[in-house]
Amino acid sequence: MLYFVFATLQHDGAIIQQAGESKTFSSAFKVAGILLIGIAGIFIIYANTLFLSRRSREIGLYQLIGLTKKTVARMLIIENILLSIGALIVGIGIGLLASRLFLMLLVKIIGQSGFIALTFSTTAMIQTFIVFAVITCITSIQMTIKIKRKTLLQLFNDEKMGEHPRKPKRFLSPFLAIFGIVLIAFGYWLSGQLFKGSFFLNVLVVLFATIFGAYLIFRISISWLFYVVRQRKNGLLGLENSLSIAPLMHRMKGNAKSLTVITVLSAMTLAMIAGAYSLYYSTEKEARYNLPHDFMFINERADAEGFVEKLAANDIDAVLTDLDYLQTTGFYENFKYTGFIEDNREDEDSFKIYNGTQLADARFDVKELEDNEAVYYNPLDLAAAQFVKDPFEIRLNTGSNEALLNAKTVGSGSVANFFDYENAQLVVNDATFQQLKTEETLETGVFYTVNLVDRSQLEEASELFKTLPEGINDSDQYAFMSPDFYTLYTAAMESNGLLIFIAGFLGLVFLISTGSILYFKQMTEAEQERKSYATLRQLGFSVADIMKGIQRKQYFVFGLPLVIGLLHSIFAIRSVDLLFTTNIFVPTAIAMGAYTLIYIVFALLTIGYYRKIVKASL
């Protein structure tokens, strides 16, 4: 159903047209579609393995009454095909209804307005049918292989899962148990040092440390810890521990790989969703950092005045401000980055110097400055600017003399609409600006900013801006010309909205898949332990007594992979925090909170299934 919904959105012409026939939309949907096929395929194959294990006794009985392996395989394949066809029909039917909901969500996220009619996509249906047919063939082959390879005795004993836990080696087991924890801790530390040395090598080491460390925790650390607990209790675990620790000890070896994979993929999914949501959450702020003014003109003041008059004719009030600047070169003194960025900026750099009073008149937030004090902005590297250690000094070349400015603080973003892409920017007070202006060697210039009094009218003003004559802002000096703020903001909303939609959709599919895998595994174990629960009930233990131990087990099965996955994703997001110029704590916390809540739902469903088994065991 989910794949058909995604394919329908991918091939719907109205969406592509609404997005301005963007190739980004098409490419993003194609890549996400491939990932979706991979996730769904792995889940179905894994789930089929669990269901085949549960039906091993049934398959054995068919052979016991005289049916050949070939006949049994044919029966299961026909059953599989019929169930697949039924699921395909139902999935497409529900998908048709759900597609409308997801379309409305996508349109809302990317900030588009108006009604988009969703049409039935034959291409999406054919694509879904092909994918489903391939997966059905794979699962049918999987069934055939199991039936051919398993003997009758193996089929009847297949449900008796579990292993006899061996006594941990005296020195090696505690060493590996602690080593797994140390590996993860080292990976977390190194994730904050990715940009020191070889970035690619550091990433590989972090991945190895966190993945192998997680495997050692599930395979060695937990088993060793359980053994120590049992040894200290002299084997007398009690009811609750017998229903939680003992089953885990007997299945830890078989579950270590699957729990490690679920943990790592959970971390990747969480990092993907949190990163995408952080971009979407900070879209307006990021756009305003890059384009602080609603509109800017660089050639003639008359152009800006004419635009303001056009706005006024449409009942849009705006403020026109001259933004003078001085341009020169200079050197940094005591310039350092905090954290892991190694760049002391010893080379000569070019600077544009702006009058703080004029910026304030243009509705730009300017701090009060003393004489010879400045606020430093670096539009060339907006993300890294937040790690500059202040204060530091800048020695400007002003001809015969040198002016020393104290960079008191580092500002966020840019003070002009991308026009200064090749220069660092300094904002000084009016007295310092006028003093520097007297130096004849400094180049001078002026921009003209237009900012609306009521920014709720930005959309209408942006449409008027687009009607201005072409070339009105052409310049050989400023090659990186950007549109007005609202145009950049809407374009960013479309791209970031598409990103969060795809990340959320894939995250939902993955979460359902991993949660379902854990749920199905616990269903299988519950069926296998049914006789044990019946014995306990006959001995007089109540359902509530038995469920206390089962709940402890589920806290571990669902909780530990989730906790380690959350920690992995937190440090993964932290390592790329440099790429964001805004605080990403809130969107990251929201994404992780939502992910955790859905995981808890699967845990509660599992506990509910166990309760049903325990009640029905007597």
Account of the protein in words:
The protein contains 19 helices and ten strands. The protein has 618 residues and is α+β, with helices and mostly antiparallel strands. Strand 7 (392-398) and strand 8 (401-410) form a beta hairpin. The radius of gyration is 32 Å and the shape is elongated. The mean pLDDT is 80.
Give the gist of this structure:
By secondary structure, the protein is α+β, with helices and mostly antiparallel strands. 63% of the residues lie in helices and 11% in strands. Among the domains are: 1-158, no CATH class; 292-483, no CATH class.
Bulk shape: elongated
- Uncertain stretches of 5 or more adjacent residues: none
Q: What is the H/E string?
A: HHHHHHHHHHHEHEEEHEEEEEHEHHHHH
Helix content: 55-70%
Secondary structure class reads: alpha+beta
Please tell me the overall pLDDT.
Answer: 80
- Please tally the helical runs, counting DSSP H or I stretches of 4 or more residues: 19
Strand percent estimate: 5-15%
SSE blueprint:
Elements (H helix, E strand, L loop, with lengths): L1 H10 L1 H6 L4 H32 L1 H9 L4 H41 L12 H28 L2 H6 L14 H20 L7 H34 L5 H44 L1 H8 L4 E3 L3 H13 L4 E16 L2 E2 L11 E7 H6 L11 E5 L10 E2 L2 E7 L2 E10 L13 E5 L1 H8 L5 E10 L5 H8 L19 H44 L1 H9 L4 H33 L9 H32 L2
Parallel strand pairs: 4-9, 5-8
Antiparallel strand pairs: 1-10, 2-4, 2-7, 2-10, 3-6, 5-9, 7-8
